[in-house]
Every structure is written in structure tokens, then in C-alpha cells.
Amino acid sequence: MIQTERLLLRGICEDDAADVYNLFSNPKVMYFLDLPHPDIEYTRRYIQNRPRTRCEFVVLSKVFMGIVELNVEFEPIIDSRADLSYYFLPEFWHKGYATEAIKALIKFGFEVLKVNKITSGLLKCNSASENVMIRCNMQKEAEFKQHTRFNGEWVNRVEYAILKDEYLEQKRE
């Protein structure tokens, strides 16, 4: 478990299936993503069959708020790279919860998992997500022009990252 000032991040479990299904079947949450869960059974299989290299946490305050995860790219995990993802129910958007949870997950990635680099990508038109990356001290590494089709148009994809050395330097400041 990871605790922040306002949040508790704990490992996802089968008892979370209904909340996870509600999250991944919410059209607002899935607006920029193509990961919808068609039914609760799909969600149960998703929870049961997660790879060992995926560190996935439900985000709670007093209620389920969303999911954050680090998907580690290689074995062994130490000195590896991890891809960060996050999904929050709309009623928790624009309140700083994503930033708080992601900062805690970045700390977990570098201090506990000992990964060397954490990355995350987003569609350029998702400015709210891009602002979260910036507030979490991640740096823009690349912008891929007309990379993905979204709402019938080609849109750019942006990649952000933070290195362990950068994280440790920021921590010292």
C-alpha cells in the first residue's frame, strides 16, 4: 500500500471488479482511450490475468476513485523501464488527485521497484493529462505527428518521461 496526504493506493483485487468495470465502461474516462470493458466478466478476467510486471493500484479516498499503474517493461525489474498509466472517474478530475497519486507512484517506481525510467504517453489534444505530466516533473521527450486517429482525425501523440537521476536530483532540492 502507498499512502499520500489524501489518498490510499492499494493493490487491485477481485473484490474491486465492480468499481473497475464502472471505471473502464465510463465513456468520459474512455474518451481518449480504446480500452473499454464490455461487461463485468471481462473485467474479472482482466484483474485475474494481469502480468506479474504490472503494478496496478486502486486509488481510494473514502471511495474508489480510479486506477494508477506502472507496467514494467523488462525482467529483472531493477534497472528497467516502466510505463505509467492512470484512469480516474470524472467526479475526481481537476482536483489534484491524479497528480498526487502519480507522484506517489513515481516515488514507488524509483525507490521500491528501482526502475531507471518512467514514461507515459497521451494524445496532444488531452491537455489535462499533459498538465498532470508537467506537474509531476516529467519532461516531454517526443511528439509524434498525426500518430493516432481520434474522433475521425489524425492527432499527435506526446511522450513524457522522468529518469531516476532526475527524480533523485529533484528530491534533493
Describe the structure.
The structure is a single chain. With 173 residues, this protein is of the alpha+beta class. The protein is 29% helix and 35% strand. The chain has an eight-stranded mixed sheet, sandwiched between helices. The longest helix is centred in the middle third of the chain and has 15 residues, at 97-111.
Oligomeric state, counting identical vs distinct chains:
single chain
Predict the CATH topology: Aminopeptidase
Gyration radius, rounded: 16 Å
Globally, the shape reads globular
- What average pLDDT do the residues reach? 91
Determine the strand fraction and express it as a percent band: 25-35%
Distance, first to last CA: 26 Å
Helix-strand makeup class: alpha+beta
Number of strands: 8
Order of helices and strands: EEHHEEEHEHEEH
Tally of individual helices: 5
- Count of folded domains: 1
Largest sheet: 8 strands, mixed
CATH class: Alpha Beta
Poorly predicted tracts of residues: none
Please bin the fraction of helical residues. 25-40%
Strand order of the largest sheet: 1-2-3-4-5-6-8-7
Question: Which architecture would the CATH scheme give at its second level?
Answer: 3-Layer(aba) Sandwich
CATH homolog superfamily: Gcn5-related N-acetyltransferase (GNAT)
